[in-house]
């Protein structure tokens, strides 16, 4: 039976000005609290639009979900897998009936899962990497994904691509190893600079990298797009002074 999706909020349809920020933050996210949001509104709405349009058969979320993004992905997917070393994630989201939780090292769990799904003819068509990984961990995760031959169009989303370590890992990944690579935009949604309140400390955070793998070889050279590279290099410069205020409220 074809899955019919119903919008969880009509705020985009009726343009109601009476709806406050809390409801806006939860748009298209049925079980998501606005507390401890990892994603900005632009990142979350981009993910929601992609999920609504793509309607994944099988989605994989890699990393600890601190921002209640897993329920959103599970809502739009026929089946979802959460890969994380933190067993508390399963306790938090055990109400998601179409979601399976796999705990353990990603470098062991992810290739085994992809192999089993392929053997059972289940296409993986959305993967979200959603954690603060080191450059080496990011490269390891991406190398496993790039070794996968998709059965249908596969979207790869990497959150926190503006973080220097994550960004370094993405840029150092050998994307050309996959003949199925069709598109990579490191700054599909650019990140931002935030500052801790005491003492003021510069941090580059957020951003969504989007890559796409096609089910057939592309036979072309794919250029890694980095439209926000100049901004990143400027903000990452040691010459930037950080004001002594908390910018976290801009993304909550």
From TrEMBL:
Domain of life: Bacteria
Protein name in UniProt: Uncharacterized protein
